[in-house]
């Protein structure tokens, strides 16, 4: 199974599945092999998938017509016989609209191609204390619909908090409870709307365009703190869709009160806003001590999931003056001291190096995953 939902074909599966299910699975399988930048001929795809020549040709023809794939030239000569035509993801014909609800003082969005690369940006500035509303989101989408050159296949919204389907069940940052985003927006624009937790969206960018592998913990440190978990290329959602709420793990029961109702949540200790208040009047030595202590808190919060899930890769996203060498080293030292053993692979904590479009790019990928599953 991959992020695109494609499973390798099997005789049993084919026997039990409808023709539409088989075609959808084959489409997902072929797309996952080409995404993001691979090039294969039809013959290559047949060998890699185990699909028949007719099945590959049928699915590829449909995907070419749809605008998902394009032909990119002749494959290198492999000896006798006609050279095959290479196929790749088409980044010119289809567009995705992607919104990021995590930014301070603005609502940010982009029109992207199928790789999630931003073609055009748009934003709405928020006044002091002003909250994001459904009306603002609709206004920004309307603006970006007019900016798209290609056919828009979906709208994606990356939101902090607990997301279940198209509903933000709880977001302390946005002060939302049971906010249904998808239903009214789908009715208004007539296009499928995908809503994703912001850390999960950013993790998808790290997976395909950063250094992330099939298994990792991704931590996002900004105004709030969230995380996402990828196991065998499958995002872990949890029973109540709240997996990854590392920001609301209490690491000090006598610590500051959190908007969630608990005390000493990680978010009250090391969020970007909290640390900047501490750093603003600190000298250089004090800054090192503040970030060292913050890194230790993160290492403390990570020690349980790392040990429980046997994860070797932890990627941390945040501003470079906060998530710097001092912070990462302190988190690494604490994690090593609490999890190192002869039967556990050494876990590396590293800084995410994807750029500022990490969220809109990842949300576009989430839209694409959903689109291919239809």
From TrEMBL:
InterPro entries, A to Z: ATPase_NBD, ROK, ROK_cs, WH-like_DNA-bd_sf, WH_DNA-bd_sf
Region of interest: Disordered: 1-21
Signal peptide range in chain numbering: none
Segments passing through the bilayer: none
Name recorded for this polypeptide: NagC family transcriptional regulator
Native source species: Bifidobacterium felsineum
Family per record: Belongs to the ROK (NagC/XylR) family.
Pfam families according to UniProt: ROK (PF00480)
Ranges of biased composition (kind: Polar residues): 8-17
């Amino acid at each position: 199974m991959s992020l695109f939902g494609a499973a390798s074909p099997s005789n049993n599966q084919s026997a039990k599945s409808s023709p539409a299910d088989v075609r959808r699975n084959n489409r997902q399988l072929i797309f996952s092999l080409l995404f993001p930048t691979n090039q294969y001929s039809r013959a290559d795809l047949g060998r890699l998938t185990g699909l028949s020549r007719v099945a590959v040709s049928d699915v590829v023809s449909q995907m070419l017509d749809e605008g998902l794939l394009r032909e990119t030239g002749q494959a290198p000569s492999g000896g006798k016989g006609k050279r095959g035509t290479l196929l790749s993801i088409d980044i010119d014909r289809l567009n995705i609209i992607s919104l990021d609800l995590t930014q301070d003082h603005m609502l940010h969005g982009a029109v992207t191609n199928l790789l999630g690369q931003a073609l055009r940006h748009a934003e709405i500035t928020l006044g002091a204390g002003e909250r994001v509303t459904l009306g603002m989101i609709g206004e920004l989408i309307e603006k970006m619909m007019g900016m798209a050159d290609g056919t828009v296949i979906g709208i994606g919204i990356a939101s902090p908090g607990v997301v279940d389907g198209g509903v933000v069940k709880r977001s302390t940052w946005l002060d939302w409870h049971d906010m249904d985003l998808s239903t009214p927006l789908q009715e208004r624009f007539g296009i499928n709307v995908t809503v994703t937790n912001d850390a999960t969206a950013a993790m998808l960018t790290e997976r395909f365009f950063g250094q992330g592998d099939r298994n990792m913990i991704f931590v996002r440190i900004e105004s709030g703190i969230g995380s996402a978990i990828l196991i065998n290329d499958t995002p872990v959602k949890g029973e109540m869709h709240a997996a990854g709420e590392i920001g609301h793990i209490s690491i000090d029961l006598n610590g500051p009160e959190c908007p969630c109702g608990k005390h000493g949540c990680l978010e009250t200790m090391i969020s970007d806003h909290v640390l900047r208040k501490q750093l603003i009047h600190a000298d250089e030595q004090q800054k090192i001590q503040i970030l060292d202590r913050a890194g230790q808190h993160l290492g403390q919060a990570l020690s349980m999931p790392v040990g429980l899930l046997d994860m070797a890769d932890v990627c941390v996203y945040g501003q470079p003056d906060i998530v710097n060498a001092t912070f990462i080293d302190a988190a690494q030292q604490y994690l090593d001291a609490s999890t190192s053993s002869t039967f556990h692979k050494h876990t590396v904590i590293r800084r995410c190096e994807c750029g500022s479009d990490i969220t809109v790019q990842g949300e576009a990928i989430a839209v694409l995953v959903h689109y291919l599953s239809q």
